[in-house]
Amino acid sequence: MAHTQCFLLLASYLFFSVSGLYFHIGETERKCFIEEIPDETMVVGNYKVEIFDKNINDFVPTVYGLGMHVEIRDPDDKIILSRTYAAEGRFTFTSHSAGEHIICLNSNSTAWLYAGQLRVHLDISVGEHAVDYQQVQAKDKLSELQLRIRQLLDQVEQITKEQNYQRTREERFRYTSDSINLRVFWWSVTQVSALVVVGIWQSLHLKNFFIQKKLV
Fold this sequence. Notes:
Layout: E1 3-9, E2 18-25, E3 29-37, E4 42-53, E5 58-61, E6 68-73, E7 79-85, E8 88-94, E9 99-107, E10 118-126, H1 133-140, H2 144-212
Parallel strand pairs: 1-3
Antiparallel strand pairs: 2-10, 3-9, 4-5, 4-8, 4-10, 6-7, 6-9
């Protein structure tokens, strides 16, 4: 069974629209990342894999045939992407529901004959940061002003999605807090009721005991 390690990545629009990192991965290891993404938001991941060369004690480009398997699950734990890519490339997906998306990467098992420790460089872009506006400008033949307006509109749309997502999270958190508070209240009522019942029973028991012993 592959050893899995998970790292929490905050992916809100204001704080984590673009993430860049690298991590090391060994044989049978699988690395997973959690991205909080609004609904209907495009996500682009660019990655590059390097292999450790003992001769020079450094990481170098990987050998032929070694690649990365990418699996992405939505907040309902449904697989929305599962595919094996080359040692360097990109993956793209669009979220259809807001919430935590799990992005997992592991090397393809057939290439471990050549591989040792790997270093994976990973850049994740969320929302309008994932759009290549130079390509959009060339495709739609937009002027600089039109392109800038397009960017601003995309930013406004992304901010609106993020605000809606945060509002949904706040409502969910409030519902959870109210539910916990209600349970705590009824548990306290139950405890007090049990103490009252036990107290009454003890009083009656002592009263009967005194009457039987003719102490009262």
